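Below is how a single chain appears once it has passed through the pipeline. First comes the sequence as given, then the structure the pipeline wrote out for it. We keep one example in the README because the format questions we get most often are answered faster by looking than by reading.
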Amino acid sequence: CKRKFPAGDRPAFRCVEDAVPGQGPMAGILAGLKAASHEVCAVIACDMPDIHIDFLRRLVRKAEIFDVIVPLSSDGLVEPLFAVYRRRVRAKMQKLLASGQRSLLPLLDRVRTCRFPVRNTVWLKNLNTPDDYRLFLKTLKAKPSVARGRPA
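Resulting structure:
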């Protein structure tokens, strides 16, 4: 982690840096999988503020059978940055990165992947701009958290 913490003030998390900076999300996930002490790891992008723990638990249960479990929207899009990965996919990730591939999508075709259907993906969004952030804050103020979209 580049962030410095005051002496004796340790974070409640472990920060792991990419082996080669600037290689995109797959390199970050690979670094996390290499450092992980558990076989099954949840991956959630830092710009995805709405985390549904029950849905994440459903994805984790599928990890007994699959290597990667990704949400699949009704329009056919997957979200590999809100997903569950088994550590055993590391070698395939390394090969893809070594070949210049930075997208996670080709990985999904090379490992046992469960594309888990989600009907309501309102909560499954990225905040990529200041306007996205402002809109998200407005929705939080307008509705109690129990009323926000739930995954199905």
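The chain is about 30% helix and 15% strand.

See the next section for the split statistics.
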